[in-house]
Amino acid sequence: MQSAPRPDSRITAGVIALAAIAVLIGGAFAGLIVEGARDPSGALAAFDSYLLRVARFTLWQALLSTLLSVAPALLVARALSRHPTFPGRRLILQLFTVPLALPAIVAALGVLALYGRAGYFAGVLASLGGGEWPGIYGLSGILVAHVFFNLPLATRLFLEALGTVPTDQWRLASQLGMGVRPAFRLIEWPALRAALPGVAGLVFMLCITSFTIVLTLGGGPAATTLEVAIYQALRFDFDPARAVVLTLLQIALTFVVVAVLTRLGANTVGDANLPVAPRRYLATGKVETVLNAGLIAIALVFVAGPMTATVFAGLEADLGRLAGEEAVRRATLTSAGLSFLSALLSVTLSLSLIAARRALALRRRAASAMSLLEHATDTGAGFVLVVPPIVVGAGWFLLLRGVTDVFAVAPVMVVAVNAVMAMPFAIRAVRPAYDAASERHERLCLALGISGWNRLRLVDWPSLRRPLATGFAFAMALSLGDLGVIALFGSDSVQTLPYLLLARMGSYRTADAAGLALLLGLVCLMLVVAADWLGREAKA
């Protein structure tokens, strides 16, 4: 008689991690259901012209942002791939990773510093328009900010796709004397076309769930998306019924987008450090070289402009006075503490799911199908992509408002939501290293009876130290710059740097906001650079 398998603490830890995710997401849905059942007539009344207008604008701005980000990215990626020895090419690719490290509110300040009513380009734009420049609030500001974030990401993804073209094809094209147009039609375009649906879908999802950009640059009811409308319905109008309807519609739209992305095989995490290796391509003529150089220069100026404006505007602020303010010091300490706890929780939950998935896979027979629990540990963290942070926050806001002071639980909600939202990134950093370490040490640990804490400390930790540090740094950067949850639960007693920055913008203290943006951007950038360096060292 075959004995039952020995209990594995890794599986227990994975079940606890799944339960934590289920409680967080399930609690949000419970809050929505309870609120909808409490006032069904109010929920039905929320289906009005305002709802349709907000939903239409959400889809429209996401569609335009995707088109304006992806189409130029195709051309820029091809230009970079055709010139592997382009001066400063490596620096340009590194610069294209910076927008992924910047908090959205910092990028919004950079866009305003350039194109706002009092921005650096305000005089030029006013002279071109023949009157006073009104600023870039509204749809135009949202589009510029979204393109700033997504053009570099799409460019790197397309560049990776071009890097998958076999060298033999380029060698054969060179031997046949193939020109530029045939090479594009027969070699480059098939690779780009295969990547196009996934890249476009990823950018569309990022734009449809954009909250901070629309909140800071939307410019009124005419330029409001579903997530911003949820925030306004709870914080300003206190209309729970409308918030429930808006939240359910946002979940439905996001679910459809994620389902399509899954079918297309898109990378929903959006890796910021894609390997891009130079190749030898066909010779390019002078005209094409000039055009490609112009495309690269325009993209470089567009991406570098808001970042440069953020630095200059921040240096113009009275940084000494800001550093001495009690509110700034308190917000800095709050941000550091909450982001540290969030990152610690994120890597803990991620490691638990990774270890449980590996343990279940080893128990499963080669020909048998994956169990439901193994499926959950493999894809459970990805489920959070369907529910944006503002939606989770709205559900818990509605659930807790009749039980306790919702603003008193702000630290707990910020830590929990940001930790779960960062899990896909942490898993991406840790899982390959854990699987490789398990492949080397699994039989030895089983033979010696090493498990649990002793295994983690003595066997796994040397291999996982750097990947865990990578996931921790990236999760901390994401939490540090997040505004979604704290925008709902923040108050005068609980303020983070992004929340304080938004408050200074709302009170027209733009110089202070610029100084805070510079501080926040530099800290997040240092964390992501550290994560990148640790990741490279781990791979080495």
Overall description:
The protein contains 24 helices and no strands. By secondary structure, the protein is mainly α. It is globular and about 70 Å long.
Number of self-contained structural domains: 1
Mean pLDDT: 83
Please report the distance between the alpha carbons of the first and last residues. 47 Å
Contiguous helical run count = 24
* Main pleated sheet: none
Q: Could you name the ranges where pLDDT drops below 50 across 5 or more consecutive residues?
A: 272-278
How much helix, percentage-wise, in residues? over 70%
SSE string, helices as H and strands as E: HHHHHHHHHHHHHHHHHHHHHHHH
Give me some keywords for this one.
single chain; 540 residues; mainly alpha; MetI-like fold; 76% helix; globular; ThiP_ABC_transpt; transmembrane transporter activity; membrane
Briefly characterize the structure.
The protein has helices spanning 9-38, 40-45, 49-82, 89-95, 98-101, 104-115, 122-129, 139-163, 167-175, 180-208, 212-217, 226-235, 240-264, 286-316, 319-324, 326-363, 372-379, 389-400, 410-421, 423-448, 452-480, 484-489, 497-506, 510-539.
How do the strands and helices of this protein lay out in sequence?
Blueprint: H1 9-38, H2 40-45, H3 49-82, H4 89-95, H5 98-101, H6 104-115, H7 122-129, H8 139-163, H9 167-175, H10 180-208, H11 212-217, H12 226-235, H13 240-264, H14 286-316, H15 319-324, H16 326-363, H17 372-379, H18 389-400, H19 410-421, H20 423-448, H21 452-480, H22 484-489, H23 497-506, H24 510-539
Helix pairs in contact: 1-13, 1-16, 1-18, 3-8, 3-10, 3-14, 6-8, 6-14, 6-24, 8-10, 8-14, 10-13, 12-13, 12-18, 13-18, 14-24, 16-17, 16-19, 16-20, 16-21, 18-19, 20-21, 21-24, 23-24
InterPro entries: MetI-like, MetI-like_sf, ThiP_ABC_transpt
Family: Belongs to the binding-protein-dependent transport system permease family.
Protein name: Thiamine transport system permease protein ThiP
